[in-house]
Amino acid sequence: MHLQNSQRFTGVVAVLGMVLAASFVPAAKADEVHVAASYSAEHLNGLRVGFRWTDGPSIVPKSWLTAIGNPRIHWEAAVNTLVNSGNSSERINALSFSPVLQWALAPRLFLEAGIGVSLFDETRISERELAISFQFEDRIGISWELDTISGSRLSFGYAHYSQADIQRPNDGLDLWVLSWHQPF
Questions:
Q1: 151 closest CA partner among 33, 49, 25
Q2: Residue ranges of the chain with pLDDT lower than 50?
Q3: Nearest CA-CA partner of 40 in 151, 100, 120, 128
């Protein structure tokens, strides 16, 4: 009973945190959509669909951004689903919200990294035990602009979900992610 109340409280805090974080994004329409496929060594296959706001505000002083190479700041919201490839009836879903920093490495080539929050609808999949619904989403990847006119990009990266030992066990999830990004 105590565990369920703790999970509900953590879930409510996570949702409130996402709503608060979303309030920092201006009332502008999303200007990029992405679709991603993911895979993990634990035989989880995933799909992610999301929106990115590239005109979002910076929440850190400009001097801090200058100190780390002047990345662009984007805001991203997404829906994720993961399925156990060994047992297709085993599924876990999540809502995610994250700031994403993007550095230009070369013309049309970018490094992207972000740390955000996710709220999962289940706390166990395959042999992975997450303990609570609230998880941090850490990611890093390389993005290549395929077409300078449309701005479409293909990216490959790594994502990790974990709750920083707020509650044990904290097995986390590790995924390799291939994404298609399309501005509109």
A1: 33
A2: 1-6, 16, 19, 23, 25-28
A3: 128
